[in-house]
Amino acid sequence: MSKIYWSPGLDQLEPYTPGEQPKSETLIKLNTNENPYPASPEALRLLEQHDFADALRRYPDPESCELRRAIADKHNLSAEQVFVGNGSDEVLALSFYSFFRRSEPLLFPDITYSFYPVYCQLFNIKSRTVPLHGDFSIQLEDYAAPAAGVIIPNPNAPTGRYLPLEQIEQLLRSQPERVVVIDEAYIDFGGESAATLIDRYPNLLVIHTLSKSYALAGLRLGFAMGQKHLIEGLLRAKNSFNSYPIDAIAQRVATAAIRDTAWHSDNCGKVIATRERCERALTDLGFEVIPSQANFLLAKPPEPGAEALYLALRERNILVRYFNKPRISEYLRISIGTDEEMEQLIRNCKEILASQS
Amino acid sequence: MSKIYWSPGLDQLEPYTPGEQPKSETLIKLNTNENPYPASPEALRLLEQHDFADALRRYPDPESCELRRAIADKHNLSAEQVFVGNGSDEVLALSFYSFFRRSEPLLFPDITYSFYPVYCQLFNIKSRTVPLHGDFSIQLEDYAAPAAGVIIPNPNAPTGRYLPLEQIEQLLRSQPERVVVIDEAYIDFGGESAATLIDRYPNLLVIHTLSKSYALAGLRLGFAMGQKHLIEGLLRAKNSFNSYPIDAIAQRVATAAIRDTAWHSDNCGKVIATRERCERALTDLGFEVIPSQANFLLAKPPEPGAEALYLALRERNILVRYFNKPRISEYLRISIGTDEEMEQLIRNCKEILASQS
Predict the structure, then answer these.
(1) What CATH class does A10-38+262-356 carry?
(2) Which of A25, A59, B32, B190 is the S-S candidate for B293 at Cβ 3.0 to 4.6 Å?
(3) Partner-chain contact B13 A121, CB within 8 Å
(4) For A265-304, what is each residue's pLDDT tens digit?
């Protein structure tokens, strides 16, 4: 019964598996790169103070004009260079549809955000993965081949490794006739955004999310920045899929959050400081830590190894991310929480490692 | 420049054009079938009273468990027979992808929701439109042909005409191997939902929205109901597109709205009573009104005709929907507002018609 009604091929899709969202409140949750601090108080206050009855009764602004203006102001762009979506996952999906359905393969790193191959399946896009070096760095020369386009996260996930803008420019120049998407979900934790390159590169699309540095994963808001002709392509796909993807509350809350630049830079600074302390502490415990400009660390624990440590931490109500995948199965990805959470993590790691030796 | 970076064919898409969302506050807005009353106070109160900081910081429940349970309870189903999406437009898009990509054409009426042909273009689905009768009724025999599936709104939009359940059953029996989607966006204003047929028909998918009878168009929440194997197909497509389409606030507000059944039936009763009064008044003015079980009326005005009346009403700050399309260009679609708004509409129609004679 199950599949006779499905479109042919639907049963071949292998959906993305998000990090676990357990319901326990007592857990220290360091597995999905959420921000440990509450979002901008300006944004949160809106919810209490604003009367949303009328805004909810009516359809929201299908073009999210105010929100796009706030994003444009922050990044020195015009509103027509900004596209917003229901989380950066939706923005990514629409970007794959709009730019990468071609006869050549799309190129992306072999170790990267695992939703990329899923979008390729969804839209029947060919792809070719390009191996990272042994130290997980990206070899840019490998991307100068005939392609449908290129997508890389910067910093990359789950490695945390960052490419400086000169290298992003090298990538953009090597694919002048194809779109290069720089997925900057983690850029605010120490990197420099490629958004400053938009006026010079007609093939550059930069994607951001409010889920990490804005502490609004629960709001589902992502955006793309690029020259007007790329944004128009995205709008054409979006308006053929869902006219009103951003609800009236999310438009207002996100606008307030984007405009609260003081909260944002303060928050990023706190996360970065905690990451640096945590990196030193893990190194002291014998972990091999990959240099990270993100709000997580990819680290290879000493004996008993990644999987055993993941399970032992879980027993102690600390959740980190373990990928049972080639090349990274000896590593754990640890999101940066509060200082107190990271101290508990370190203390528990120390105890577990000591009990093994 | 504009299109060299687009996927081939993207420039051929003709996106859906939603009804106008003007920013003027003084306008009487009867053009997009919104509810004239504020949503359930239980749902609205949540926004003021709940502390959303933690819910927004974290990713939302990707499975929207509580919301799906509330919907299942209301419709006497199990939660695994319910799928939720970011507005019923997203649910429709994913349904087209999941069930209708086949070698035969999808069948739907020639006069119906104008997003259907757009989804067909988006996913490269063949389609064949089936003409309505002269009185805008649906001829069911015409749907018993080899097809990828069938989709009809019940009540149909923009006609408002309703099919009783026996006729829906006839349709389901005529396509036993294909999915039949009944798009019930307007069912709560006088019709009987086909959700009661789900246990007997493995090919039935029923789609609802919170935008009309729940007065939550600004929240973007729609859902599908069907046997588990159809919901599993939708989940597979959804989890390959966007893991977390429903934000944390929308999940809670929608759950409260669905559970407030007293508000809902009271609200629908008020809209129905106003529609019936308005239908009589328009008939008295010489309009030909199509019988409607929706929260709008499709009506053919006397001289000077639909377009002239639409423009004259607009000058007087009353917005209704005029479709410049074959077969319905002599009609206006008028959403049901409050009694006072409809009295103003009638008074202004009377003045405009009088000034023409």
Answers:
(1) alpha beta
(2) B190
(3) no
(4) 999 999 999 999 999 999 999 999 999 999 999 999 999 9
Please, what CATH class does the domain formed by B41-259 belong to?
alpha beta
Mutate to test the interface with A, among B7, B151, B229 (most CBs of A within 10 A): B7
Spatial separation of the C-alpha atoms in residues A113 and A157, rounded to whole Å: 6
B211 contacts chain A (CB < 8 A):
yes
Distance CA A326, CA A348 (A): 27
Instruction: Tell me if B38 and A54 make a contact (CB, 8 A cut-off).
Output: yes
Q: Which residues contact A116 (CB under 8 A, 6 or more apart)?
A: A92, A106, A108, A127, A151
* Fold of the domain spanning A41-260: Aspartate Aminotransferase; domain 2 (3.40.640)
Contacting residues of B for A179, CB less than 8 Å apart:
5
pTM recorded for the entire structure = 0.96
Q: What are phi and psi of A130, to 5 degrees?
A: -110, 120
CA dist A317 to A24, A187, A271, Å? 9, 29, 22
| pLDDT greater than 90 at residue A357 | no
pLDDT at B110 exceeding the cut of 70: yes
The 3-class SS string of A20-89 reads: CCCCCCCCEEECCCCCCCCCCHHHHHHHHHCCCHHHHHCCCCCCCHHHHHHHHHHCCCCHHHEEEECHHH
The alpha carbon of residue B124 is apart from the nearest alpha carbon of chain A, in Å, by: 11
Q: What is the mean pLDDT of chain B?
A: 96
User: What is the least distance, in Å, from the CA of A119 to any CA of chain B?
Assistant: 6
Per-residue model confidence as pLDDT tens digits over A131-152: 999 999 998 999 999 999 999 9
What is chain A's Cα-based Rg? 21
Nearest CB to A7 within list B7, B48, B99: B99
Residues B275-324 pLDDT 10s: 999 999 999 999 999 999 999 999 999 999 999 999 999 999 999 999 98
Residue-wise DSSP of A167-196: HHHHHHHH-TTS-EEEE-TTGGGT---GGG
B199 touching chain A per CB within 8 A? no
Residue ranges per structural domain of chain A: 10-38+262-356, 41-260
The pLDDT of residue A225 is above 90: yes
What is the C-alpha separation between B234 and A5, in angstroms, rounded?
11
Distance CA B228, CA B353 (A): 54
CA distance B106 to B127: 4
pLDDT tens digit sequence for B134-190: 999 998 999 999 999 999 999 999 999 999 999 999 999 999 999 999 999 999 999
- The fold adopted by the segment(s) B24-38+262-356 is Aspartate Aminotransferase, domain 1 (3.90.1150)
Cβ-defined contact of A218 to B101 (cutoff 8 Å): no
Nearest Cα neighbor of B335 from B215, B206, B250, B208 is: B215
State the smallest CA–CA distance between residue A232 and chain B in angstroms: 8
Interchain contact A8–B (C-beta under 8 A): yes
Q: Are strands A127-130 and A28-30 parallel, antiparallel or unpaired?
A: unpaired
Residue B105 pLDDT grade (very low, low, confident, very high; cuts 50, 70, 90): very high
Q: Which residues are within 8 A (CB) of B87 and not within 5 positions of it... i.e. 6 or more apart?
A: A242, A244, A245, B209, B211, B220, B221, B222
Strands (E), chain B: 28-30, 82-85, 106-109, 127-130, 149-153, 180-183, 204-209, 222-226, 288-289, 296-300, 318-322, 332-335
pLDDT of res. B279: 98
